Amino acid sequence: MKNRKMKSGIAAAALVIGLTAALPVSQAASSDAVADLFSGTPAGDSSFHFSEIEFLNEKTGRAAGNGFLIGTSDAGTTWQSIYKGTWQFTQLDFISNTTGWALAKSKAGGTNALIQTTDGGSTFTKLPTGNIALERIRFLNTKNGFGYTRAFAYKTSNGGKNWTQINTPANTRYAEFANTKQGWALIVVPGFGYTLSRTTDGGNSWTTKLNVKSSEVSGGELYTSGNQVWAKFYGGVGMSQQSYSLYASPDNGTSWRKVISQATAGGGPAPGGAAGIVKEGPASPGGHASNLVLVDGAAILGGFSPAGEQIGVGRTLDIGKTWANLKPIKGFESIISFTSPNQGWMADTSISSPAVYATTDGGKSWSKKVSIPVKN
Q: Could you tell me whether strands 61-72 and 207-213 are parallel, antiparallel, or unpaired per DSSP bridges?
């Protein structure tokens, strides 16, 4: 589930990481060479699969899964093994090519541990978080960052060694802070639906900016960039279909536009009632929304349909005034990372067809860059 950060101004001519002896691997390489990236015993499952992908710039990125972390310095043409072990990665958060944090589990079904690396991911150090079971993290620099559980928000000023809870409204189910002062909270209101509130004083006070009525409430997600705020509200789910709505604000919540209003036969009506710019999100009919990326004026939403066996993206270049769902490709589950409106990557996170794809035209077309051999 996931929120995607924008990283800019990070120079990385090569992937400066501790590599294993494995040679760089491209999808055109021999099957033995590809298999070596994913040799050994999968962590927590019978097969290797991707769970996260993060690119720092147009060349340098990482993909992670259950017991492995791989990297590329040429946009995915070749890949190198960075880490093999027992960590089951759920999120990567690198602020440079060497320094980063991750959330990972040590056993299937366990809670996330917060781990840190200063060598690009070859080794990790576990940072104790006490009884705080973090589900998301976002670091601004080596010292300052934010961590989130399902209901609470926290901040750190020493690189994750200690955490302080931030005051958020009751029944908060998702929060997102841009800095120590500016933040948003998605709140569940029993018997009504959702409200969206904003703070400009670090959580001391909150102001309601949006009310969204919904007969079913199952959470949502928030994304911010400058004055832009995007909010995704989930309705019901059933028959492998997800109902949801996506709202956009160009002015920090002063005005809102409903961009996607996806009602489904299995999930029921979309939250908010009113029509959106479009009636369906990417990978429809009945597709599930993946993560949203805000980059250089574009908003790009991943989508997947396990029943329809397709993954893809939808996007806008004008803060939701118009929206286009682009042609999907075969797949089952997905997560995306974009470094510009045109250049991006998409990982199929399923066990059935685990692979990483790249696009240079904003998601109109995709090329497979690496895939995990599937055991029959």
A: unpaired
Handedness of CA 112, 118, 121, 124 (dihedral sign): negative
pTM above 0.70, yes or no: yes
What digits encode the pLDDT tens for the residues 162-215?
999 999 999 999 999 999 999 999 999 999 999 999 999 999 999 999 999 999
Pairing of strands 50-55, 207-213: unpaired
d(CA 65, CA 258): 34
Pick the closest to residue 326 from 297, 296, 303 (CA basis). Answer: 303
Tell me the CA distances in angstroms from 144 to 164, 175, 195, one per residue in order.
12, 17, 28
Specify the 3-state DSSP secondary structure of 239: coil
61-72 β-sheet, strand order: 50-55, 61-72, 80-94, 100-105, 113-117, 125-127
Where do we find the tokens 């789910």? 237
Q: Give the span between the Cα atoms of 176 and 163, in whole angstroms.
A: 16
Q: Phi and psi for 203 in degrees, rounded to 5? A: 100, -5
Angle at 55 between CA 50 and CA 56, to 5 degrees: 150
Match 């705020």 to its residue by tokens. 229
